Amino acid sequence: MIVMSRTRFGELTFPVDAELSFPQGLIGFSSETRFAIVERVGGAVAYLQSLRTPRLALPVLDATLLAPTYPDEGMASLAARIDCRTEDLLALVVIAVSPIDGGLRANLLAPLLIDASKRRGRQFILDPERYGASVPLGEAPVGETRMVG
Known about the structure:
This protein is mainly β. The chain has one domain (2-139): Roll (BH3618-like), CATH 2.30.290.10. Helix content is 5%, strand content 36%. The protein is built from 1 helix and 11 strands. Strands 3, 4, 5, 6, 7, 8, 9, 10 and 11 form a 9-stranded antiparallel β-sheet that branches. Strand 7 and strand 8 form a beta hairpin. The two termini are 19 Å apart.
């Protein structure tokens, strides 16, 4: 078991096989390579909890909730980027609350692609002409509420 204390959620316990590895880190967090997903009961938002830095937990949303238009290159193409089967792909977008209007914004430019079977992920930069790093969620079509993983 992995036990994390002093997280924003209090003490958390994860089974060892819940660990997700991001060998290259994340943009802005290059030394953060070990994470686990904290799912909320009854909500679409989950958290990517660092297993190195207890206070670091990024709110994330299943990218398939933004279907059918995101990402326009399709899940099979994204799965190929991390050499995984489409059915094993978990694509997440980091979200944040805007300090200006209090609305939810999503980083559609740099999704987190995770091979659920290998427990390895990587953050990719998509086409900046098509996607933004702070897109109001109201501007992206939202599908049914579910969390994959």
